[in-house]
Amino acid sequence: MTTRARTKNGYEHLAPLFHELAALPQDDPRRTVLRDELVTGHLPVAEHIARRFAHRGESGEDLVQVATVGLINAVDRFDPTRGTDFLSFAVPTVMGEIRRYFRDSSWSVRVPRRLKELHLSITAAGNELSQQLGRAPTPSEIATRLGLSKDEVYEGLEAGNAYHSVSLDDMLTQDSDNTSLGEMLGEPDSALEGVENHESLLPLVRELPERERTILLLRFFGNLTQTQIAEKIGISQMHVSRLLARTLQKLRDGLLEEQ
Amino acid sequence: MTAANKSFVDSSVDVGDIELRVPAEARYLPIIRSLAATIAMREDFDLDFVADLKLAVDEACSMLAGAAWPGTELRCRFRVTDNGIGMQASALSTVDALLDTASFGWRVLTTLADSASTRVEQVPGGYRVLIEMTKRGPHPADPRMGGA
User: Fold this and answer.
1) Considering only CA atoms, which of A135, A140, A142 is closest in space to residue A225?
2) A137: closest chain B residue by CA
3) In this complex, do A241 and B58 lie within 8 Å of one another by their Cβ atoms?
4) Is B76 strand, coil or helix?
5) Which residue has the higher pLDDT, A101 or B48?
6) Rounded average pLDDT over A229-234
7) Whole-number pLDDT of residue B30
8) pLDDT number for residue A238
9) Residue among A126, A143, A252 minimizing CB distance to B62
């Protein structure tokens, strides 16, 4: 990262804010103000990194958005007491976010930018409404929330079908690393008891990534709704839906191969 | 299993039923599940309902596609009712064999849907394997939901 030394100097005035932020209690309203200030102040860093990736076929604005999410994560996770400076922490975090975006996010068909944004705002509104309502919202509730017509919401939801990955959804939610959930559920062995082909199924379920397995077990053996699972794991309901569809497909294919 | 003498596939098409016929092959399943999702969404069922219906339809139809005689078609009929969506799907088979209701796939289907059943009917030249399922949800047209 040849840029680090150069950009570093421009942000030193922000450093004390991290200490101030760290010292505030969790519920202090001033935290939001400081956080905003830190994010806004470091925005040029995100923009700069995004530009370096801009030739790869994704629109520049999308990348700046992704980089900004990386920056926000970095601001939230940075621990000033560790003695490292923020930029040497933030730059890899932002770059990681962009790499993940390239790796994970590909729309299976070309979806216009407007629809991607529509899909993003619908996902975000869906998350909020789920929390308020305690259940998944309906398309018309989302339309009301966003001030959109129902047809626009349909369009945005359908656009989500063309988008077969994750990172945009992830961006709107918290970190999804949650190992304790899997432990809490216990072994899949007992959950799958009574299913006829469970000997061939078990190895397939064990091979699933932790999160996919957790979602599968919570939905089919814990009987939680997709929205409840989304909340537990910290991802959006639409993301749960996609992961679940993919997992079931994988299991079906795996069982077919067995035969 | 006794063959019902009438099924709504071949008789009593309800006004408002939506039917789709595709070749009974796995690669056509996305078309069926998109239709299911579109119907549920436009009926304003909540997003959990839409997502679960989609998975259930996928599961049911892939079971049928697996049982179908190659080169035949898969029929899916959807019916919107006051409190949910019903689907009847069927495929043609040369053998009089019921789908395995002890399988993982059936477990998935019955978790996602509120009711599911399967049967085999004799038809000229072979058998028709059917799955009927319904998924219930608070219908948004219901005043209790507040509507929009």
Assistant:
1) A135
2) B46
3) no
4) strand
5) B48
6) 84
7) 87
8) 83
9) A252
Give the whole-angstrom CA distance, residue B28 versus residue B21. Answer: 10
Tokens 């077990």 identify what position?
A: A217
Q: Do A195 and B52 touch (CB under 8 A)?
A: no
Asked if ipTM goes beyond 0.85, one says: no
Give the β-pairing of B84-93 and B126-136.
antiparallel
Among A110-119, A232-241, B20-29, whose mean pLDDT is lowest? A110-119
The pair of three-digit structure tokens given for residue B18, joined into one six-digit string: 């939506």
pLDDT beyond 60 at B55: yes
- CB–CB of A163/A108 below 8 Å? yes
pLDDT for A103 equals 59
How many residues belong to chain A? Answer: 259
Contact by Cβ (8 Å): A227, A120:
no
List CB contacts (< 8 A) between B66 and chain A: 256
Q: What is the pLDDT of residue A87?
A: 85
What would the two tokens of residue B115 be?
């009711």
Other beta carbons within 10 angstroms of residue A1's beta carbon come to 12
Alpha carbon A6 to its chain's center: 31
Q: Is the pLDDT confidence value at A249 over 60? A: yes
- Residue B81 forms beta bridges with which residues? B84
Outline where DSSP puts E strands in chain A.
Answer: none
Contact across the interface for B48 and A141, Cβ inside 8 Å: no
| Closest chain B CA to residue A192 | B104
A94 to each of A20, A39, A87, B119, B133, how far by Cα in Å? 23, 12, 10, 55, 47
Q: Look at residue A39 in the predicted model and tell me its pLDDT.
A: 92
B47 contacts A244? CB cut-off 8 A = no
Nearest-angstrom CA–CA distance, A130 and A241: 14
